[in-house]
Amino acid sequence: MKVLVTAGSTWAKIDDVRIITNRFTGKTGLCLAQGLKRKGHSVTLLINPHCLGEAIPLGVGKIKGLRVIPYYYFEEFKKEVTKTIKKQNYDVIIHNAAVSDYKLAKPFKGKISSGKSQDLKLISTEKIIKHIRRLASKSMLIQFKLEPKQKGIIDKAFKSLKVNKSDFVIANALEDLKTGYKGFLIGRDKKVIALGSRSSLLAALNKLICS
Q1: How far does Cα 26 stand from its chain's mean position?
Q2: Which residues sit opposite 145 in a β-bridge?
Q3: CATH assignment of 2-108+122-210?
């Protein structure tokens, strides 16, 4: 099967030097991409090279047979995901990237002088998951949903699935991720599968893809 995996965090410019981002590393997305490749799927990985250190020195190339497409900023992510979906029909899209929820209304030009207080006006970014679904209406779309607490997470994740017209959602609670990987796989029928590791996540997704 042809699979697209998005991973890593997007950046939002403050100025030409500084950024706003989040602390997610892309480790789960990379693990899924490599694991699905080992299971025989044709996998494209869209990832921020900053998450990979020296794994792809110039930000483009291959990691153990993966086709790697780099991005850094939110706008680059949208551009690259749009381009690759229009160019290639994917059977499955796993949207794991930690996309920025906010960006500056107007980034500063050059470099802001240090030592001065600044008021930053943030605006909401476009929901890329909706953009992906519009571009790939026939693909199996698997999204991720992060909540602070586990309480009520199933209902919130299922609501997100319905709003975004995804096929499956992986729900994670931030409080659970502090001690290792834990999550819940939820389908359109609201059937829930508990996941206790990234390996169990990989196995569950591969079973979906192959079914």
Answers
A1: 8
A2: 171
A3: 3.40.50.10300
Tokens 């995804």, located at residue: 166
Determine if the pTM surpasses 0.85.
Answer: yes
Integer Cα distance of 199 and 192 in angstroms: 17
List Cα–Cα distances, 83 to 46, 54, 80, 88, 151, in angstroms: 11, 25, 5, 9, 38
CB 28 within 8 A of CB 95: no
What number of other Cβ atoms are within 10 A of residue 164's Cβ? Answer: 18
Alpha helices for 43-144 (secondary structure H): 74-87, 128-135
pLDDT in tens, 145-189: 999 999 999 999 999 999 999 999 999 999 988 888 899 999 999
171 near 156, Cβ under 8 Å? yes
Domain ranges in the chain are 2-108+122-210
Q: How far is CA 177 from each of CA 28, 36, 48, 53, 198, rounded to the nearest angstrom?
A: 12, 22, 21, 22, 11
